[in-house]
Every structure is written in C-alpha cells, then in structure tokens.
User: Fold these one by one.
Assistant:
Number 1:
Amino acid sequence: MFRPGTGTAWGCVEMTRVDVARLPRQATRDAYGEALVAAGRADARVVALDADLSGSTKSQKFGALFPERFFNVGIAEQNMIGMAAGLAAAGKIPFASSFAIFVTGRAFEQVRQSVAYPGLPVRLVGSHSGVTVGQDGSSHQAIEDIALMRVLPHMTVLVPADGPSTRALVNESLSIEGPVYLRLGRPAVPVLYGEGGFAAPPFKAGGSVTLLAGRDATIVACGVMVAEAVTAAYRAEAIGLSVGVIDAYSVKPLDRDAVLAAARATGALVTAEEHSVIGGLGGAVAETVAEEYPVPVIRVGLLDRFGESGAPDELLKLCRLMADDILAAVRRAVAVKR
Amino acid sequence: MTDQRTKAAPHNQPGTPEERHARLAEAARQLRVEILRMTAQAGSGHPGGSLSSAEIIACLYFDVLRLDPARPSWPERDRFVLSKGHAAPVLYAALALRGFFPRELLATLRKTGSCLQGHPHMRTTPGVEVSTGSLGQGLSMACGLAAAARIDGAGWRTWCLLGDGETQEGQVWEAAEAAAHFRLDNLVALVDNNGLQIDGPVSQVMAVDQVPRWQSFGWRVLEADGHSIPDLLAAMQAALAGSGRPAVIVCRTTKGKGVSFMEGQADWHGKAPTPEQLARALEELGCSGQGPALPGGVSR
Ligand SMILES: Cc1ncc(C[n+]2csc(CCOP(=O)(O)OP(=O)(O)O)c2C)c(N)n1
Ligand SMILES: [Mg+2]
C-alpha cells in the first residue's frame, strides 16, 4: 500500500519474479521528451529552455510543437538558468535542460542564487548523467550532480530508474512548489514499471518504491542502478540471502520512513547509484540511519574517481557498478552487521 | 511617459516639465539621505554605487515604472531587476518612499531577522522582483521576465540596472546576445557607468568600452548623463520606442555622487559612514536632523 508522501509501506512485494533482462528498454531522456510535450499540452505555463543540446535532451519535440514557449539559448548554460528564473518569477514553469554536468556544474552558482535561494519553480533537467554517457568520457559524465543539487536548500532531487517513472515524475513536478532537479540518462534502460515488471505506484517527491522485501539486507538504489539492484537481490537468493530493494527515486526529500523501516527490518543497507559515493544517495542514506537507527551502510558508486571513455556497459564494469558489485557489497554489509 | 497604461500609474502627477524634474530631483535627494542613514545605522553596506544610481532609480520608481505599492504582485506591473544587487540601499529607499513598506523598516537593514537583507531578496521584501547580489545574473533573469511578457502578450516592461564593473562577467554577454536574438524590445538595460569597481578604476582593472560593446551585441544604445533628470527621462522614453531590439542606456555617473568626500572614491564602495561622516553628508544634502528627509515625502 502506498502512503502519499511517505512511500511504500514495508512488506509490499511483487510475488512473481521480474525478468529484468527481458524487459523492454527505453532511455529516461526519451521518456522525458514525451512527458515534456504532454506537460506542455496540459499546462500553458510550461515553457522549455535548452542550450544547444535539445536533440540529445529530447526537449526538441517540445520546441517544434510550442515554438513560442521554447528558448534555445545557445551554448550559454548560465544565461539559461537565469532566464528560467525570470520566467518562473513571472509565473511560468520552466524546464531547463542540458547534460547533467553542465546544468548543475557549469551553472551551479546561477542555480544557487537565481533559482534555489528564492525557491523558484524551475525544473532543471540533466540528461547524460553518470558513466553510461560512454565514449564522450569524463568531461561529459556527471558523477557529482546529485551531491551538488542535494546540498541546496529548497531543491528537490529526483532520479527515475526508467521511462514510466520519468513520465510520472515530470507530471508530478508540475505541482511541486520549489525547484526540482531531474536526473536522466543516455542509454536505453529496462522498463521496470508496467507489464512484465513491477506495479507502478504513484511517484511523489519524498516517495520511494519497495520493489522487493528482504530479511538480511536492503539495497537502496536510484536511476540505472535499480535494475542492477533487482538482479543482485535475485542472485543473493542463490547464496541463501534474502535481500530487499528500494527504488529511492526521490533522493531529496529522501523517504526516511522507508529507509529506516528497511534498516530496522534487515539491519544492513547497501546503496547503489551511478554517482560518486560521496554526497549522493549513499550519503543521504548514511546520514539518515546514522542519526536515527545506525546500521552498516555499504555504498556502491564511483569510488572518488572520474569516469572515462568506453562502452557504457564496459564502464559500469570498470567502475564496479554491476549487479555482482552490489552483491559483494551486500555480503560485506551482512558480514559486518551485529 | 504617456501610453494607454498611464492610468495605472497613480504616482504620475500632472504638472509642467519643470515641476516634474524638480519633483524627481527631490526624490533623488531623499533617496541619498536614506541610503546614508540606513548604511550608517547598519554599520555596513554599499553607499558609493547606491548614490551613483539615485537619479536613475528616482526616475524609474517615481515616474517611469507602472507600479502599485498597494498591490506589489499586480500582474501588469513593470518589473525592475537590480542586477548590481549591492546597491540594495537605493532600491529599499525607493520602495519605502513609494509605500511598499514602512520607512521605519529601513533602520533594520542587514540586521538579524530583517526583511531587508544585505542584497535584494524577492521572498522577504515587497516590491523586490528577483533575488540578486551575485553579479552578472540579473540581466538573464530580466530576459526571462521579458520573455514571459512576450509569451503572454502582456504590455509590461522589464528594466535592469547593471554596474559597469559587473559587465566584466561573461554571463552578462550571454544574456545580451540572447536578448538581441530573441528581439526582446520590451527590455531596457541601464548601466551605471561610474568608472569604479572595488579594486579601482574599471579602465585599469579590466576595461569595458560600454557603447561599442553593447552595439556589437545588437543592442540599441542610448547615452545619458546619469545625474540629469531630463536627460534620463528622455533616454528612458526613447528606450521604449520598440524597434525589435533591446535597448540599453549607458548612464555617465559619479560614484558616491552627492557627498563631496565620497565622490569618485573607490574606497566608499562598501563601507558605512561613521556618525560624524553621516552628519557631514546629511548637511551637504540639506538635511541635518534625524527626522524624515522631508515631511510628506514625494511618493504621491
Ligand atoms: C559574482 C560576484 N563577484 C564578486 C562580487 C563582489 N562585488 C560586489 S560589488 C563589486 C564591484 C562592482 O562594481 P560595479 O559593477 O562597477 O558596481 P558599482 O560601481 O555600481 O557599485 C564586487 C566585485 C559579487 N557581488 N558578485
Ligand atoms: Mg562601477
């Protein structure tokens, strides 16, 4: 049962096994492009801005349909954020998109001063997050964007794992009062929610989805790592471990109730994100349990290193972001728990 | 300024041009008095760049802008963005004298819990449109405001005041190219070209030749003596002509204007007058007492 605002109550599980490898695939940025168009149709206040990457971020479709509400500012991310702030101050709901590193990194101080501080309802959309950007290499792979956005007061940080949750969160973002950072990815990823996958609950800021319940440990994951976490949990069964999985798509506000319930029920947590282990979801979960119910938290993510060029799946291997890496973390967590 | 929206400008008073100019000169004098009092009271703040903007702000807030202090969020109001946010004292003085909030609040500038933050914040101060203070960001926000008016087919205008040193920020020129590209002719920028920044003359720190720079970015460039009310009013009127291009008024000003020992001194950028200095400054401005600058004010 989903409780609005607090996430899914502990114990709600899918009975049938989801075959992650056979699920249809869609990139979250493609789902974003569709959702943005739908939002533009549903709400005349929606406007979009991009910085010469509208074909990659998929805001282009919106631009073609609503040219009077679309601003391609050129390669000028700082101005894009300021213009989005001005549009928001005049009652619009701007979606400002670029690659995750540019929207959060290049324009960080603009986001801080012009958007977060006054709490303006700008939706910052960062596509091409993490190492699955692939061949472009480290300059284009945001591994610190969650940390950068999470530290800002007023900011909501959403990291959807698949297309349906992306669409739901874009729609949900229309009713979030303050600024929102939506983190998207480049590659096609399994469609976890819907036919053949998990039942899709309402997605809300501050929510989460408990995909699997476990007894021995719980994996708290976001983005592309949710599918890896599910695979890891199934593999854990083979070695006699019962492992839960939470899709923590709302990194901020974090679903504290769900995380703490998992800590109490399983006594050990693993976090998994395509991001530095510093300051992201792992940081958020560790901070939460350290204050309320200390249990071991093993963080899977980039171990204080940059990404590099390569095929996305090879980079996930290289950076130890695969299901088996999560499984190894689960074994460590179980081993150290009291 | 005359157009169909003049009706909505309750502060626009009839009178001869001379009366209008005198009224605005008096408003600028009162702004200066309040700037000095409030920074002295706060013990910190930025008098130099506030004083250099006094006539510009007087013309905008007491004549040109369509505003209704009783309805700070009236949708049809003109928007003003103080991109050089450190000049908050001159903006706060104008808002107070126009009745957006009680004048007594000026004494709380920069104090814990005050609605008057050290730099303008839209969430705490009635009449402040966006939050500024980090230089270089205001013109982008002004572009966004102007774009919103365009989308809505609304007639309100957006004005944005920048410092000359501020235009060293790259983002200013990102915004400048965007305003020209999107043909935001409902946007007017003003540069307080006082020739000084913190570390000294702009020409020595990092020279910016304002007129050719804005021209090369596709803007319509107007120039004015930034301390001459008739000059400023004429330029502001011309800026609104609407030509498919954004307009900028480069205002020749003197930093610290109106106080002899502050004029042209980079040193007075960011420090408050002592009580003795305040007394001398107020005397120069024809106001020695502690009471209101002038009973009755000039706001109506
Ligand atoms: C991004 C940023 N960098 C530095 C500062 C510190 N600062 C405040 S005022 C100022 C000088 C501004 O000079 P100018 O734009 O010429 O303003 P004015 O002379 O009108 O006061 C500086 C460097 C700031 N507020 N924002
Ligand atoms: Mg200056």
Note: The mean pLDDT of chain B is 93.
Number 2:
Amino acid sequence: MVQSINQHEVKLDFRAKKFIIWLFVVSSTIMFGGWTSYYIVFAASKGKGHGLVLPDLFMYSTGVLLVSSVCLFLASRAFRNQEFSMQKFFLWLTLGLGVIFAYLQISAWGTLVQTGAVFSNNNAAISLIYVVSGFHILHILAGLGLVLGSLFGAYRNISVDRQQFRMEITSIFWHFIDILWIYLYVFLLLNS
Amino acid sequence: MSTITIQNNQHHDSHDDHAHGHHKETFLSKYVFSMDHKMIAKQFLITGIIMAVIAMGLSILFRLQLAWPDRSFPILETFLGKWAEGGRIRPEFYLALVTIHGTIMVFFVLTAGLSGTFSNLLIPLQLGARDMASPFMNMLSYWFFFTACVVMMCSFFVQTGPASAGWTVYPPLSALPKAIPGSGTGMTLWLISMICFVVSSLMGGINYVSTVLNMRTKGMDLWKMPLTIWAFFLTAILGILSFPVLVAGVVLLIFDRSFGTSFYLSDIVIGTQVLPNEGGSPILWQHLFWFLGHPEVYIVIMPALGISSEVISVNSRKPIFGYHAMVYSLIGITILSFIVWGHHMFVTGMNPLLGGVFMITTLIIAVPSAVKTFNYLATLWRGNIRFTPAMLFAIGLVSFFISGGLTGIFLGNASLDINLHDTYFVVAHFHLVMGSAAIFGMLAGVYHWFPKMFGRMMNAKLGYLHFWLTFICAYLVFFPLHFLGLDGVPRRYYAFTEFEFMQKWVTVNIFVTWAAIIAALAQVAFLFNFFYSIFKGKVAPQNPWEANTLEWTTPVEHLHGNWPGEIPTVYRWPYDYSKPGAEEDFIPQTVPFSLTMSSNMPHDFEGNTEAERIQEEWMAAQEAKQKTIVD
Ligand code: HEM
Ligand SMILES: [Cu+2]
C-alpha cells in the first residue's frame, strides 16, 4: 500500500517536472516571437527586409538538424524496446550531429561576414539574423547538455523511471529546437 | 505511530529522488540554499521588504527636492557625497532616484516580493502538495532574484551613477552611453540585473504553473481551489507569456549599446557629432516593452487581488460573492491584458485608427476589474466583519483599486490621454491603482499569513496604527497629484517650479512631501512589529483566523513535506463560512459532507445522485424524529 502511494507520488513528480520543460518551450517560443515580430514591424515600416540570399550553409545545417531529430527519435524507440546499445549509439549520433549543426551555423556567419552583411549593421534586419541564430545556438548547447544527461544515465544504469524521464525531456526539447530553427529559417527566407 | 514513520520515508523518496539516507540540515541548507518552499517564501519576503525600504528612502529623497527646490540639506551631502554637493540633489541624481525607485518597486517588491512570497508559501500549502514541482529550480529562482537586487544596488557605487532613463528605459536615451551619465555603466548594470530578474521570474512562474496543474491533492479539482491560487496561477501564466518579450527587447538594447547595431537608433546627433547608426526605431522598443509592461502591471495587482479575496471572505465570515465570476474576471484580465499595451503609446504618432482599437480594448478591460470590485463590496455587505489588520488592509486595497481604476478610464480615452500623458495625473493613477493597492494587498497577506510563516502572531494594535497612518497618508500623497496633472505639470522634471505657471504648486508639493514622510515613518511601526514578532510574538494557534483552507491544517511547527502523515483530502470548496445549519461558522475543506448533514445544500453534491439520495433520506429521518418529539 505504502509502496504504491510512494510510486504514485514519484510519478506525479516526474509529470510535473516534464511539464516544466513544456512551459520552458512556451516561453522560449515567445522570446523568438518577440524578435520575429520586431522584424515584421521593422520590415513593414521601412519597406525592406534583410535583402540577402541566405548562405547555402544554412540549408545544410537544417538538414543536419533534421537528421539529428530522427536519430533521437530512433534512440527513444530503442530505449522503449530495451535495445540499450542501439539507444546509446543513436544518442551519440544525435550529439555529433548537434555539434556539426552548431559548427555549420557559425561557418554560415563567416560567409555572411565575407559578403559584407556584418552584425553591426545599419540594417537591423541583418543584425537580427545573427541574434536569432545566435540565441538558437544557445538552445542547441542546452539541448546537447540534455542529450549528454541521457547518455550519462544510460551508462550509469540509473533506474528505468529516471532514464525514461531523461529521455522524454531530451526529446521534447530537442524536437522543439529543431522545429524552432525550421520556423526561423523559413521566416528569414520568406521575409527577405 | 508506525504509519507516521512510514509516511515520512515515503515523502522523502518522492521528494528528492537521489537522496540516500537522511537529510542533514546544516545552517547553509536550512536558511541559505534552502529548497523548502516555506523557507524560500520567507527569503523572498524579507528581501522584498529590504528592497521596499530602500526604494521608499529614495522616494523621500526626491520628494525633498520637489518640495524645497532651493533649500540646501547639508546632511544629504554627508550621506551622498558628490551626488548632493552643497546639500542639494544634483539633477542627474534626481533622475537616477526616480528610475531606481520605480524599478525596485515594480519589479523587485511588487513582482518578486509579492508573487515570490505568497505563491511559494501558499501554492503547496493550499493545494496539498509536499513542495513545488522542482524545489531546486525554486531555489535558483530566489538566488537569481537576489543577484538582480545586488547588481541593481551596485549601480549606486559606480562613478557615473545608476540608470536614469526612467523605469521604462526608453531609447535613445538609454541606448547611448554618452547621452547622460546614467546611461553609462549604470544602464549596463540595470540591463544585467533585469535579465537576472526575468530568469528568476520565469523559473518561479514555470514552477508555480506546473505545481498547480500537476500536484493538487485528492479532491482538489480546479473549481475547489481558493481564489488566491487562481490568482497566482494566472499571474504566473501572464509572466511566462510576457517576460520573454522583455528579454527579447533587452537583448537588442544591449547590442545597440555595446555592439554598434541599430535596432532602436537612427539619425542621432550628439553635440556636433553625427552617429553612424541608421534605420532603427525607438518606437519598436516601446512596443516590446509595453507588450510586457502592461501585463506586468496586472502581474503586480492580480496576486494582491487574490489575497484580498481570501482575507475578505474569511474576515466577513461569508462565502466570497460570485466565486466563478471572480475566476472568470481574472481569466478575462489575463487575456485582455495582452491587447491593450498601445494605450501607453497614444502620443507616439500611432495611426489614430490603431489608437481607437487600443482605446476600446482598454475600456473593455475595465469591465472584469469592475466585476471584481463589486464582488468585494458584495462580500463585505452585511458580513459579520472582523476588523483584523489584514482585513483593514484588504479593504484598503479595494478602496485604492476603485479610486485609481477610475482615473484609468480617463487615461484610456486617447483624446484625454493626449493631454494627460506624461503628467502627474498618470503618476497619481498608477500609484493608487498599482502602487498603493498592491502594497496593501501584500501587507494584508503578511498580516494574515504571518502566523503560518513564523508560528507567531503580529501585534494587532501596532497593525491598526500602521494601517490608519499609511491609508490616510497614501491618499494625502497621491490624490493631490491628480490636480497637478490636470494643470499640465509634467512628470520626471527636476524643478518644474522654474516655469512660472507651475509655481503655485510648490505649496502642494510641500504638503505632499510631509505626508510622504509621515507615511514612511508609519512603516517603522510595521518593521518593528514584523521583526519583533518573529522572535517574541505571541505563539500562534493552528488556525488563528478560523479559516477553511488547507494551510491551516498543517502543524504550526514547520516540517519538510508540510503534513506529518498523509496529505489531507479535500471535499468541498474553500468558502463555506456561516453556512446555515452548520454548527460553527466555518467548515474546513477537509470536512466531508457526511459529517455536515444538517447544513448540506442540494447544489453541494454537483449532481451526484447517490449522495443526494442519502441526504434526502437523512432529512426525512430527521423530520420524522422531529415529529415524534412534537407528538
Ligand atoms: C481600469 C483599468 C485601467 C485602465 C483603463 C488604465 C489605463 C491606463 C492608461 C491609458 C495609461 C497610460 C497613461 C499615459 O502614460 O499617458 C496607464 C498608465 C499606467 N497604468 Fe493603468 N489603467 C488601468 C488599470 C491599471 C492597473 C490595475 C494598474 C496596475 C496594477 C495600472 C498601472 C499603470 C501604470 C504603472 C501606468 C504608468 C506607466 C508609466 O508610464 O510609467 N493601471 N493606465
Ligand atoms: Cu497599461
């Protein structure tokens, strides 16, 4: 009896903590929403956007990020089927692809700078490209931390409940930053 | 006895999934890096009180300047050094004082101090939870807040002084470090402090929402929650949805200041030097700021409204009038507060049509606010009122909310606001409706829940003294400002008496300053009462106000996990006061209907036919008994 109440409370605890991640996703979305609405109002009042052809690197990085999301999905599935070595393999892959994504983003900045579209710019729309992609990279770093946490849990063999909890919050967050970047990329493509 | 030990273990595991064995409470883990929501609440409260005292001190300084613009106060020079050379406050410092006063009061006292204290204390206690969803994040939330306070105070010790562009820090003034001294390092510190503050608020708010949605005890469905919880819950949602926008705006401002971008800057000439920045727009800052800023004012007032709902109902010994209407009006305010921000920007040259839209939404938001006011009055009406200090402060809130809300309706009309904008009329409006009302709500909460926080009672006599002096002086301070505003006296001016047509207001200013000084002295009664009672107050009984809510079922002595045994189950709403037929004039939420057969009403059973049948049988039996006695 006591045992079952106990488990019930633990479950509640995890559910509440998972909910925290969702709320974080909401507030983060709103922050980016703030910047994109800045962009819209700015572009509407000045009659111009960033006016650039975005570097191809952004396209590649988007692809990489998408694949990483698929990998994480596969890792979760492996975990559910109790194929733990597969789970670890796909988690490592997600991690690697995440790092490559961040690297590609920063190289994309490099190309932007070479074409003269620098950060300190009299066209705020161009500066904003750096702001949104930069803050997105910060989210990637946080996401990598969560992936590492899941990996760590897998190697340390912590209780299944807690492993599952870590996998779940990692998935919520990683898929979120994936979708977030696609939103930002499409937004920048459409509003040049 | 054995059950208790088992239960203890049980909450232990659920709490802290990686703890092995027992917690060892050290001084550090108990008082400093505490993860217990009750301790964190106290930390927020005491930090909030300290910040409030500081901000009040700043306001007395600038009130001195306003009342006696030509007089020298040598004592000021001893304290402030170069900021008050020759005993007179320097103009730059005056602006810094106003700015930091506003920032501290709005953000640190009435947002963190108010929500931080009472959401932390009451959400787990009134919902029947062991602690917050994430006690660790809760602790971080306090420490980010503390850092924000320290950083903000540090700005008094930098060469160029604190930020001076007003609490709304409009660019370009705030964006150009060379514009005024306060826009230098002081402004940078302001921005850093604000980011810490927002991080703290978000962590807190996210925790509150998750706790309310996931951790209620058995039987506590949403419609059985006390109005305090509804208010904290919706406030937290408001924060989660609006604070990130402030971060977005602040980040752009930081880039403008330090990295040469032009988000808010265009066509600026300083002296003879033309700045290279082009293409930005300061109006965009105003949009981002007020998109947060207006919800922020409701973030400030809603917890205070929730607290007074509870306090007024308990002390009128009556159910709150229109519980559902109270909840729906809070929800209405939450939603509407996102679409009215333009009323702060009527004079920015916005399209008159857009101004009209914002005017209509603004006038609509007055409706739910009015619903709440009427419900308070209806609850008080013919109540069996107990005038405790908490009750007086709650009634004070209602008074200020009405008198300040009415002027909001003036300001919401664009055609009037164009005249009144940036005058003392606005200052009068928000100091009544936000400043005074929210502070009174907060004080009501402190007097009411002090026994829960510290296990002792505050002295009621000192409470009455504190209330009457503060209440009267607050009106004496803020009411006359309406007339200054109507006469066109602008806000944030160092010495408006330099203009001849405003000179007649000097006498009023002297009067206001004296009232402010007395109000400030009245707070000594509170501070003494508060700190003295923590150690020496009368020991509190478990349920000193005879209230229904769950927090009064916990033992007076605090313990980690709140309830020694199982968490109590909830059977009824929290407002069964003076229910006809009941033995006492209050029925706690934990009392099942089967124990109160004589006072149950048909609607109590929410359509549960089985329960209704039992009740009817009982009543029939009761009647039969009556008959036999008569026969
Ligand atoms: C009855 C509903 C209300 C209406 C229609 C209303 C309307 C307005 C308007 C139009 C302004 C802009 C004045 C100007 O700058 O020219 C204003 C300012 C302000 N209001 Fe209200 N208000 C209402 C209630 C409240 C409440 C409940 C609060 C806070 C709890 C509040 C806090 C403020 C503050 C802080 C400002 C001044 C901001 C600044 O410029 O520094 N108002 N109000
Ligand atoms: Cu407003």
Note: The helical segments of chain A are 2-46, 56-80, 84-114, 124-156, 160-190.
